[in-house]
Write a structure and sequence with these properties.
The chain is 35% helix and 25% strand. It has 372 residues and is α/β, with parallel strands linked by helices. The chain has 2 domains: 237 residues, Rossmann fold (3-Layer(aba) Sandwich); 122 residues, CBS-domain (Roll). The longest helix has 18 residues. Bound molecules: adenosine-5'-triphosphate and magnesium ion.
Length: 372
């Protein structure tokens, strides 16, 4: 069961639109993360899916059908919803909380009870220990687990989660993320997951949609967003993966950890320029007579015609620019995309390389600065 937004706008009278011409599609079985600054319209977008809000214009489809054509009860039956404050009712036990929706759907007692046991075991919480407790007798992390279980209770194909782990310390948060990932790999629900936290988005999202001022700014897999951010806003956003409070401009840092002139010529040709091998690294660069980087390779060029374009990777993919956000460059290196990446400056001139080693060194310098 997929979810699709088609030119969806939500405008509250007297305000600029909370959601503005939003079009995107969540595939069946996909976990899509909505992320963006506070007030950019994440919660509003979510609440329009299960008709807690109605769009001002545009259409939302669930399972290919306009949500407005569903009976709201029938619609919500197919959609689980977990919110930040867990929404657990304080005067009801854990079991009663989990059973709320099944009761609404008139499941009999036996079936409800079995389901509650099954759900608790999904997150390794013992039924006899926890079922009869009240929410306040649980830790924050346990309460959030129950919030998630409650959204799963009737096994809906679509689940909406609005910062479900927002209130947790980083360690509990990470363990719940791991748990959700594990559950999702088994259950394959269609999940729309709202968060502020880019680490969480990277960890959980099959794809990430970045919203800004109610509009879709960029959507893609985590890899795509890191490697090809549409603009500075996205690059900065992805850059928050590394908190570098002291570093002002990206040029500075790339400059700091870029190595210049550590190559020797592998082959030269008056027509095509030269191929250089970067010292101590599996990296060959083809630089033309004007100093422009034409190709990148992690293998020594051996073919009959070493200038054959097909043997080289396009620098657009395999090089970085000296103006790229340093965090993005560091991330590419640290994730192991390559041991080293060539750096190009203005006019795509080859100016040096950045290496995993220099990246790690730059990172540890930054950490030390921040510790002071
Ligand atoms: N009932 C309302 N009346 C008027 N404006 C509203 C209403 N609900 C939300 N808004 C406005 O719509 C915009 C989007 O709100 P929304 O709650 O969707 O943001 P969000 O992205 O979830 O933010 P946060 O990350 O802080 O939760 C905000 O500017 C908010 O003030
Ligand atoms: Mg919100």
């Amino acid at each position: 069961m997929g979810v699709k937004f088609e030119h969806v706008t939500k405008a509250y009278p007297g305000h600029k639109p909370a959601v503005n011409e939003l079009s995107l599609e969540v595939q069946t079985g996909e976990l899509l993360v909505l992320i963006g600054p506070s007030g950019c319209g994440k919660t509003t977008s979510l609440r329009m899916i299960n008709r807690l809000e109605e769009p001002t214009s545009g259409t939302i489809y669930v399972d290919g059908r306009d949500v407005c054509s569903y009976d709201p009860i029938e619609l919500r039956r197919g959609i689980g919803y977990a919110i930040q404050q867990t929404g657990l009712l304080p005067h009801m036990t854990i079991e009663q909380n989990i059973e709320l929706v099944p009761r609404l759907l008139k499941w009999d007692k036996k079936r409800r009870h079995e389901r509650t046991r099954e759900l608790l075991s999904l997150v390794d919480m013992d039924y006899d220990t926890f079922a009869s407790r009240y929410p306040r007798q649980l830790s924050g992390g346990q309460q959030q687990r129950i919030g998630v279980l409650r959204a799963l209770a009737t096994d809906p194909p679509v689940i909406l989660m609005d910062e479900p782990f927002g209130a947790l310390d980083p360690i509990s948060r990470e363990s719940l993320q791991t748990e959700l990932k594990r559950l999702q790999s088994r259950l394959r629900k269609t999940i729309v997951f709202v968060t502020h936290d880019i680490d969480e988005a990277m960890r959980l999202g099959d794809r990430i949609a970045i919203l800004q001022d109610g509009q879709l700014h960029q959507i893609g897999t985590p890899q795509e967003l890191v490697q090809a951010p549409r603009d500075e806003f996205v690059a900065k956003f992805m850059g928050r993966l590394f908190n570098f409070p002291k570093i002002q401009t990206s040029v500075d840092l790339i400059g700091q950890f870029m190595q210049e002139d550590t190559s020797h010529v592998h082959q030269e040709c008056s027509e095509h320029g030269k191929i250089v091998k970067i010292d101590h690294l599996p990296l060959w660069c083809w630089i033309d007579r004007n100093g422009v980087l034409r190709g990148v390779s992690s293998q020594p060029p051996t073919g009959a015609d070493q200038w054959d374009r097909n043997d080289w990777t396009d620098p657009k993919l395999a090089a970085v620019k000296d103006t790229d956000a340093s965090e993005v460059v560091l991330k590419r290196l640290i994730e192991g995309e390559a041991e080293a990446l060539p750096v190009i400056g203005e006019g795509e001139q080859f100016i040096g390389v950045v290496t995993q080693r220099s990246a790690l060194k730059a990172l540890s310098n930054v950490e030390m600065e921040n510790d002071e």
